[in-house]
Structures are given as C-alpha cells and as structure tokens.
C-alpha cells in the first residue's frame, strides 16, 4: 500500500481542509505514513497570508524534492492558498511538484492522483471549479471535536488581505446541509464543534430566504442538537456582529463564553485604510455589549502592526484599545505586503525596524493582559474538555476550558470527557490545576 503524509500550514480552515485531504487519500487506497520521510505521496496544504509561510514552504519543498530524486515514484502535491496564489508559476518555481490545487478544489485531488496515488500528468486547478469539501470523507484527529465549515470565501475587501483572492467570494452552505453534518457528528460522539468561515458571522446572507438563515439562528440550531456540549466559531468580523448573534450566544448553553474578535488596529485612520469599516469606538462598544450579555466572556484578537502609513500616534491608538479591552489572548502580526493586495503598493511602507520595535511593545502589553486574565481564574473550578495527556508530561492531562484556555492538570479522566478542574496557577498561555471529584460534571 502506498502511503501519504499531509503537512499543513495556516489557519483552522486549512487544518480542516487537511482532514478532508486525508479522508480523500484514504478513499483512493492510501494509508497514513508515520512521517514525511516514508511517504510515497506528500501533500503540502499551504498558506500565503504572510511572507513567512511562503519561505517555510520553500524549505520543506526542497527536502521533498531531494527525496523524490532518490525515488522518482514519490508524488509531491501542493494545495491550499499559496498554490492558488501562485497557480501560474508553481511548476516553474518548483519543478518537483506533480499536482497543484487550490483550496476550493480538494474534491478533485483523488482523480488527479489516481487509484493508489500513483500520480498523473501534472495539473493545476483552482477557483474555477470551486466546491465545498464538506461532502468528502474526513479523517479527524479526535473523535469528540470537529470543525464544521459553514461558508467558503470572503466578500470583505480588507486592503492587506490575500484571502478573497485565493478563496473567492463568499458562499454559504445551506442550514440543512450544515445541520445534517452536525447531527451526524453528534451521533458519532462529537461534543465540541467549531464552526468555520472566513467571515463566519456573515454566514447566510447569500442564501434565500435570508430571514431563516442568520448566523444567530444557526447557533441556536446547532445548540439544539443532542450531544453537542460546546460550540465555538471563528473568525467573526466585528462589522457583522449583530444583536441576534449576541442574544443566541447569551441564551445557548452550548455556545462557549469565548470570542475571537480581530481588531487589526486601534487607529480610526488605519482601520479606514484597511477598509475594516468600523472605528475603534464601535469595536469597543461591541466588546462592552458582549461583556454585558455574556458574563465572563473571553476575548481573543488579531492585530497587525506596521500597516502602511501607521504613525506612532496610530500605534498608540492600538495600544490604547488593547489596554482598554484586556484581551485574554492575542495573535500579533507584523504587516507583510502581499502581491495583488491594495496595501502592498501603498506609499509610506513602515521600515522593518519600526515594525519590530512596535511589535515588541505590543507583545509586552498583550502578554501582561493574558497573564492577568489567566491569573484571575486561579481558585475557580473550570469545566475542562479532556484532550489527552499533556504534551510534555505523560502523567499530566491536558484539556481546554469553555473560555478556550489550555489547562494542564492532575487527574484520571478519559479523553473526550468533561471534568471540573480546580485552577491552581497560571501563565500567559496556560492554566494548571487538579481535577475535582467527578460529581456534578456534565458527562
Ligand atoms: N500581513 C500581516 N498580517 C496579516 N493578516 C492578514 N493579512 C496580513 C498581512 N498581509 C492577519 C490578520 C488576520 C490574520 C489571520 O492574519 O490579523 O486576522
Ligand atoms: Fe492562510 Fe488565509 Fe489561506 Fe488560512 S485562508 S491558509 S490563513 S491564506
């Protein structure tokens, strides 16, 4: 039997796409290899959101090409966002690549690789034949957690972002399709769902009749599915966070008290140049509204430093919003110009040293908040979904709270169960604790 290895870069949508890629490869008769070294078919599911993943991919591809020279029967496939962005040049850039495919054309991968994954004539495929991967078989890591794609593509036009160019315009799956998948997952033992969309809370606007297809309604419908204990979603756009979604979050037991709400910048001027269509004030008002409706809610965010034209004053605006919100977690990025986006050709690109210096100041603040927010959990009992042994210590268990913080704890619970854990200490990224007696847990 020929064996495959899938190497994933990028976001949760890509990780979910990789589950479909694996399912697809198993469907055509391949087995999973233990590592890239002993794989006959190696698939890179790529990201191109910033320059860094591009350069990382180049080194991985170099190693794969070397292995292919030793054994020419090896097949190299490159999928995902980088493949789509470079579709016209991918084979000249990387002559060892056999098959290239965009994020929307996973469904065709099996045809190109052929039964047993022996490889076919070179081909590249993209947005023109885009389809939901949702109907494909899935290979999931954990039986009790699942991603569910609710839409593909994005209709926003953020001036820094390459995603609309590589994932196309937004198209929602119908509620019937999504709920059929959720029900099936729940019957198979899934307890935690993460709904995925490039702009997850604008889901449904392209469907008819729109009145029954609003994201808050979708949350309610998922919440009503027997067996689903936790629901998360990512990533919402602040501009589309409407009241029915807030009400659904507040009222649905399964919807977790956690929101990833990308801020990007705290300067009105920069937000405008980014075409985010909200102001810092509106963002802050939304945070307040969410806090009032959902007690104890945790906020995560994405922030870009060094967008073209960002002055010290603009950056101070970002720090001010960050101080005011006190995010539980934050992904911080140095602005990276992407070919084909409007921001890439804007004048006043910020010098690298300035970006790095601002980044350092920002991280200091976000880490302080993250640590303080986590420390405020010490002494409380949190409900933890057990994921397995901790990464570093075999005898310690690992799981996540409803607020999406990782907890390492002493206990005896099985993976996939919900247990109460007394929180005893905290860092900026994790909590530590001890499992309470199993009474009262929602198992
Ligand atoms: N440069 C830096 N960060 C970016 N992001 C998107 N595009 C860029 C870019 N060109 C960040 C945004 C987004 C996250 C997924 O990546 O913060 O929310
Ligand atoms: Fe990377 Fe964006 Fe593609 Fe996700 S959607 S893999 S973050 S480029």
% residues in beta strands:
15-25%
Q: Provide the CATH superfamily of the largest domain.
A: Methylthiotransferase, N-terminal domain
CATH architecture of the largest domain: 3-Layer(aba) Sandwich
Q: What number is the mean pLDDT?
A: 92
Largest sheet, spatial ordering of strands: 2-1-3-4-5-6
The fold-level CATH name of the largest domain is Rossmann fold
Number of distinct helices? 13
* Ligands: 5'-deoxyadenosine, iron/sulfur cluster
Oligomer: single chain
Principal-axes geometry comes out as globular
Counted beta strands:
19
Helix-strand makeup class: alpha/beta
Please indicate the count of domains: 4
Q: What is the CATH top level name of the largest domain?
A: Alpha Beta
Distance between the termini: 40 Å
Based on CA atoms alone, the radius of gyration comes out at 22 Å
Short overview:
The chain has helices at 12-27, 51-70, 80-85, 90-93, 109-113, 163-167, 175-187, 215-223, 243-251, 268-274, 280-293, 312-325, 352-375, and strands at 3-8, 31-32, 41-46, 75-79, 99-101, 123-125, 145-149, 151-152, 171-172, 192-196, 230-234, 258-260, 298-305, 329-334, 381-389, 397-401, 406-410, 418-426, 430-435.
